Amino acid sequence: MIQSRPQTPPSCAYTALDAQAFRASALTRGPWDPAHQHAGPPIALACRAIERSAHGHGLTHVARLTANLLRPVPIGRLSVEVMTDYVGRNAGHFSAHLLAGDKEVARFTALAQRETPIELPVELPGHPLPMAPRTPEASPPGNFPFAGQQLGYADLVETRLAQGHFWNGPCAVWFRMRHPLVEGETPSPYQRIAVAADSGNGVSAVLDYRRYLFVNSDLTINLLRRPVGEWVCLEARTCLGPDGGGLAESALYDASGFVGRATQSLAVRDRNA
Predict the structure, then answer these.
(1) What is the dihedral of CA 35, 40, 42, 45, to 10 degrees?
(2) pLDDT at residue 236 above 50?
(3) Which of 9, 31, 123, 237 could cysteine-pair with 170, CB 3.0–4.6 Å?
(4) What pLDDT, on a 0 to 100 scale, did the predictor assign at position 7?
(5) Domains of the chain
(6) Distance (Å, rounded) from C-alpha 163 to C-alpha 147?
């Protein structure tokens, strides 16, 4: 049953209950099941916790974040536990667990690096790095096909089409968060990337989501530098195999240009099978 939209929507994705525990709001709801979160917000929540641990070691750039999505993440109370696996002079490896009650629903690994300014040669092959197809200001508004049906992820983010069309093959979409990730906080650039990057398989979908499931069980984000600004662009495409597998890959941009890539492994199923 589709639930009615509340007259006063939540103001954030999560409310902190203590240093490790959070209460998810309806803004985290995903398109596959009304009781489950879109993976973007909980991945960003784990990214937030990893950032804080890394900063304690002077490591301020999250170069890689990998999420293994073990189970659907329910809309409710979550807790995040971070472990420091190894820290060297210029890089550190971290891992994290996301728990819903006594069940582990996601597991993460991350590489954080120390930021050190370096003067690069004026001319480098492949440089300057490319820009997104269009700026967010020049891109028209676009909406997810599931937007408006009930309060959820499509209300958490604002989206604009830089190229192509939603859920119709390769396309480029700008994302900007309309609400904070955690109540009372400004999301970091890395958290903004995490919220958006898990949508690559959605914005570039080649199958009708009303008939098919094409859910990702992981997400890996690689970033070559610190992102800047509120807008994140995914230039995404989905490729499907003949045996129920698939790959969604996204080039990531901010207002300054190319910043990294994201990949997702897909499990494709016919809802009617």
Answers:
(1) -150
(2) yes
(3) 237
(4) 58
(5) 14-115+135-270 (2.40.160.210)
(6) 19
